[in-house]
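new request in #modeling-help
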Amino acid sequence: MPIDSILILAAAAEADSGGGNVATEIFDTFDVHWNTFICQLVNFFIICLVLKKFAYGPVMDMLEQRRKRIADGEEKLKQVEAQIAESEKNTQAAIQEANERAKRLVEEAKESATAVGEKKTQEAAAEAKAILAKAEEAAKGERDKMHADLKKEFGRLVASTTAQVTGKVLTDEDQKRINEEALAEVDS
Amino acid sequence: MPSKSRVLAVHFSRLVALLAFLVPGAGSALAAESLPQGAEVIAEPFEWLTITNSMVMVWVVAGVIILVSWLATRRPQLVPSGMQNFVEWLVESLINFFAGIMGEHLARRAFWFLFTSFVLILFTNWAGLIPGVGTIGLTGENAPAGDQFRPFLRGANADLNLTMAMSVTFFGLWFYWSLTEIGPKNFLKHIFAPKGKFGLGMMVLMVPLFFFVGLIEVLSIAVRPVALMFRLYGNVFAGESMLETLMVMKNVPDLLKWAPALPFYFLELLVGFIQALVFVLLCAVFTKLMCEHHEDHEEEHGSGEHDAEPEDGTPETTS
């Protein structure tokens, strides 16, 4: 209990014990009158109402609006941040997908290139083989032809030489026999 | 209705009083009559309506506050500046200050009373220091019978009628807020019920003890408005009396009559602020002390009990 209140109460109690009307005495001392008091009371209430209407009421409304606007702004900021995060996530996913696709394409291209290369190599080898076979065949034909010519020339030479050495005219049968004997020796 | 000659006399006396204030030393003649304990009647248009000089002072200050607020809020800007910034700062600081003491809910509910009281007490205290307050008024034959000088304005809180009106208002609101916040049962329990947990035997002993403590608490509650009104009135009245006494000191040259009181003007600026703060601070604390009990019982009552209560206790007409 505040000390001044105690003093007032003590003074009031003391005065009361003396039989005087304390409240009236205090009110008279401090010029408190009921009609003035009521007027001040009404006055105070009116001022409360008027100050609320014109002073802090609009300010409170303004502060509330600002608080709401800031809260809305923060909410929008959060939404924008979430959208940005989502967008970044999507972009990242798209980039990753593109990377994977590109990697896959490169792999496929490599595989395709290897397959084509192998095919081409096989084709080239087959072609080379064919060319070689053809060349060998041609060479064999040439050789056979040369062999036949050689045989023919050799038979003629053998017959000619035999005729000149023996000095007699060889019959066709002799020539044939001599050629066959000579060729048999050449072949062996 | 005052007669024409009476009106002229009033205007003339105002001029004389103003000159008396402006001419050093002349004011002392008017102020020779010591500051009366209570406010003086300026007009009494009806038998039941008495207009005192402290009431006029309240109107003037309230008018200035309303004007400033209107100027500050008539074209609100998203980014405040100047007067709007100041008014917003004042309101926001006060509501945050009270919310720190009473909690957000109670602070918003009681803000209309606390804000009005603080602003009105503060600015009426400071306005009471403005030259002319208490020195311009009716003099000589224009003054009411038996009075040499009757000022038009008086430090509003140097009138017990006003401080009592504010204290009684608070007392009524305190009851209303307490009863609506915690209910009549908890209100009585808060005052009379034993605090703490006791066994049956101890409880039997404690009940009469806490009932007696409750009676003391009732006395303490009854004294609160008395303390509030006399503290404010006493401090402001003492300050005004001191300044007046210092300004009519003898053995001080007329040209320097203002000098002894000058340091005390700064003191009174501080006192004016402190008294405004103390008044509303005590109102906030008294309200919080009774309503904090509410939080202990909130679970019992359920949280929806106060949803229907208005955040602001002001009458419907204001919203």
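bot summary: Chain B touches chain A through 58 residues (CB under 8 Å).
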